[in-house]
Amino acid sequence: MKNHSIITLAIIILLNQLNFGETLYRDTFLFKSYKDTTEFYQHYKELDKYYSEKKLGSWVTNGKTYFRIFAPSANLVKLCVFQKVKDKKPKEFFMIRDEQGVWEVAVEEELYGKFYGYKVYHKGDDFTNTNMPICIDPYAKANATFTNYMNPRLSIVVKDENYNWEDDKWIQRDWRDLIIYEMHIRDMTAHKSSGAKKAGSYQGLVEPNIKGGLEYIKKLGVNTVELLPSQEFAYCEIPYKKSFAGKFNSWNPYERNHWGYMTASFFAPASYYSTDWKKFKWKKWIGTDAKQIHDFKDMVKAFHKNNIAVVMDVVYNHLSEYEVGNLKQIDKEYYFRLDKKGNYIAESYCGNDLKTERPMVRRLILESLIYWMKEYHVDGFRFDLGKLIDWKTVEEISAKLREINPNVILVCEPWGGGYDPTGFSKRNWGAWNDQIRNGIKGENPYNGLGWIFGHWYGNNSPQRIKSYVNGTLTKDSLGLFLKKDHSVNYLESHDGYTLGDFIRIATKEVDPHKIIKDVDRHVRLTPSQEKINRLAALFLFTSQGITMIHSGQEFARSKVIPYNISVKDTNKGRIDHNSYEKDNETNYINFKHAEINSGLLNYYKGLIALRTKYEAFRRANYDDITFYEHPNSKFGLSYLMNYKNEKFVVLFNSDQNQKLDFPLPEGIWEVIVDKDHAGTKTLYVTGGIFTLEPITGAVLKLKE
Length: 704
Description:
This protein is of the alpha+beta class. Among the domains are: 31-419, TIM Barrel (Alpha-Beta Barrel); 621-702, Sandwich (Immunoglobulin-like). It contains 19 helices and 32 strands. Strand 19 (409-412), helix 11 (421-426) and strand 20 form a beta-alpha-beta unit. Helix 1 crosses helix 2 (21-28) and helix 16 (527-541) packs parallel to helix 18 (598-613). It is elongated and about 85 Å long.
């Protein structure tokens, strides 16, 4: 801001204190818009020069409450303080801007528990407009949210609590040892079958002695949970068949955002998961007591007590699209990637992409990640559409976070303007391995089937299957990763069909267009479906790299939209492949279905125990594995693995029609996995021939 503007603002503040200020600025100040796109874009490019190391956010010191917000393009900023969340008129304070674009003010009292936000005026805004949106503090530690589609919020002045961590520390685990369970906090206990008293909440997730939540995850045997977004996010979307911000809602009759990939506040836990769902109503304020802070810490501590690491799925590529009162209103020109006409660039397909290469956006990202590590003891992060984060920021995340915890988990979805897992591997990040997903399962269940169905999807081949076993390394033709530690091997995630549904449709045993009324009957696996599920799981858990499964994959979870709901969904009663908006039984984990398919569930438990017990399946070197192709079928594969003093033979037959005989080396071999059991059966065979039925596999260990 130029000197005369600073002087003018000082006069406004002085006169405001004399009760004349409102009249003065209302009558005499109305900033004009930019002359043309050239003037705008010149300003847009020059914003990179602004940078500050001042503390941002709100805090209390010596009886005063301080507020600071970075908004270099703004011409005027007012702090608005509310005594109660429902107050209509706040107490307003003009803020002073420094040369680096930081606006600040100190209030002469301790405002703990009070609600606040900012009115931000830009070039072209009418200073007399008292109806400007209230913007939340980007550094707020907690927010209250009104559950409406514009998601209006107020930030809360939070007092640092003396939380009792009971000597809790980060889980220090080699990435090769990770077995990740991707899950949604609410879905793990929202269904009545979980037995949780505080269903759908942080607290419910870690309730003792129930069927669902942490108790279930412990019994499964995984060692890491990956939480779908749990930073404060937009809970509601545009009313159905109505328009907002130039977009007409023709796609979401639920008017909800359930998964959480529309982040609103990077430092604040989602109040959505600290809500009493028995009393929950829309168009009400939630999160007003900031209880979500304590609840989140309790949740992490409970997982850590059971030696389970906690990874947060975070979204730094775009911001919440359907709400007013966040970075878009604070400083659109600084925080977002814009074209020369000032329109949002949206490679994320979510309306707006954050300009992560801006110095203060990078600082915001880094400081929020560090805050979650230090304040909440989070063990790592999965970055949504990571390719939309600039490489310098990616590199600084690696450096800064590893200074705090050398084993911090950093993995991403390597999409966003292309697919580049190799670029992340070069920077010592893990990335989701879509090659193994598409090669083993296929790209779609209609005409894009993979290896478990006896097909080669795309450029898949026996050579590629071998590459997956070894971690999909760049030393192999068309491999992706410099180190196997970086390959996040998975066959199912929150996106798309579940593996169970993919198989149901691919086998043509389930018609995806058919209305399903008896979901319990539908869920029960047929013998052919179970065989394919088991073969897929066996390949996944015996491949080198990081292993990830999605919640319910272990019992062939099916996402069926309830046929009798009142929502005007034309797909009611059918299998769903994109359930981001459905806070209902489409997404909830039904533990009755785990019992129905207990055979597959136990098979997964056995494979998890196998991978946990034997280092070879996590740490064998490239040269420790020798492959043998079957002479009678291109879908027959075996390999001998020599690791330290142990020898294993792994056999696969994805041929859909014929049995295959595999020769075994001499010796007595323990069958630790076959078509019926994994890790739980003691059966010995001597060297000779081992026969696999179609669509089965086996693991044998040489008896010592």
